[in-house]
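Researcher: For the annotation table, I need structure tokens for Beta-phosphoglucomutase-like phosphatase (HAD superfamily). Please keep the output clean. Sequence:
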Amino acid sequence: MTTTLHEGSFDALIFDCDNTLVDTAPAHLSALRVGLKHFGLEMTDAFYYPRAGLTPRALFDDFEAEVVGAPIDRQAILGYYAVAFQNGLSLLQEISEVAEIARIWKGKVPMAVGSNGQRANVEATLAVTHLLPLFDFVVVASDVAQGKPAPDIYLEAARRMKVAPERCVVFEDSDEGLEAAYRAGMDGRDIRAVYKPAWSVT
């Protein structure tokens, strides 16, 4: 993977948010633990970090199947989680290796964010790190039928930008996200080649 982009070789850029533009995994896990604690549950680093790119639904599916062995009150847990995450926004930091790409190409090509996250969290994350104004569109899992690794989020971003999928470059940090980009017919770039967070399990 290379972050080098050549003018004329693409017509639009799409960026994942969590752990691509902004290092958010520890903040999300901390907030999830707040919600789970109300029900006497715990989520370990070893369980969460390899799944950091999943939608909340997919994450809880795995948690119920592999850890709890029974249904959990997802809505209540997510309620506590949302408050805790918003309270910790000030601690978030951009991933400069990727954010700088967006700054360089701002105004030159259309750009969007495509995330498996919840809209309120994604937009708050981008706002607190001063990245939100760089992007023309923000597409999240609730905007489409299926989140990543399905291609829906990225195809919707391309549709909104009025750019053919094959002319889009996608920056991602997860296998699920890269699969979504490839299935959408886009050029997927793995940022793990240039950025390795302290919590990384790979």
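Researcher: And a one-line annotation?
Model: The CA atoms of residues 120 and 128 lie 12 Å apart.
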